[in-house]
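Hi everyone,

Forwarding the result from last night's run.
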Amino acid sequence: MESISIKRLSFSHTVLASSELPKIPNKSISNILNKTFSTTGFTKAILLPKPLEILKNVSLSLEKGDILCISGKSGEGKSTLLRVIAGLEKASSGEITLFDEHIKPSEWTALSMAQRGLGFVFQNNALLSDLTVRDNIAVPLRYNKMMGTEDEIEQRVDRALLLMLARSFANEYPYSLSLGMRKRVAIARAWAMDAKILLLDEPTAGLDKNSRNNLLSLIKNLRGLYKTTILMVVSDLLVARDLDSKISFLIDKKLSDPMYYNEIRNNEDSRIRAMVM
């Protein structure tokens, strides 16, 4: 079964070019007048006449259990692509299909996508610092009344903790954990929401070699045990090699055809070959 299909996705947003203004204490201005927008007294921003196009006609398709890495230079829009797919940003145009269900534009929202089995893991993990690991995983389950009784929620949390090898620090707080541990908790929280598709934004960023390898082993388990489909942004191209997955490059607003790591050096596009040089 096809887990997710994106066709001709484009995304643009209005750019604000900022310049410094003198500090105006205790004053906030929020008016758009003569194409000028000011706020907080610190910054003046000019609305540029045309929105900035970030993504243009991006298409991709993943089968159940596929892992696809997305890479490219900084600022190309890799994280934006994940955010648009997740419904956190509104696409300018394009279509999305989840599990053979075409999603209407009005339903392409973060809540709707989460309810359909799509989980998003932020690069900064977005854990709640005043809650334990266990409660961080349980909070969205309790918020979503469809996730069952309290006993059923606790069972989901236990499974997620076990899957991501986090049971030993389930009662700890995020501030006491290593970066690698926090990333595992963030993935566990998304997976516990019955996510069939996971969008991971730079999951290995900042990790030492041992923590990186441990996390990749756990990601392999998600695929091997549960056939979870994973779309992940990476800067480390070796992640694709180590996961035995394909990788696509976001270049000039468009996504390349997927390829394996060992095919990059022989690609006909010199911009792609340059990624490993």
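The two ends are 37 Å apart (CA to CA).

Cheers,
N.
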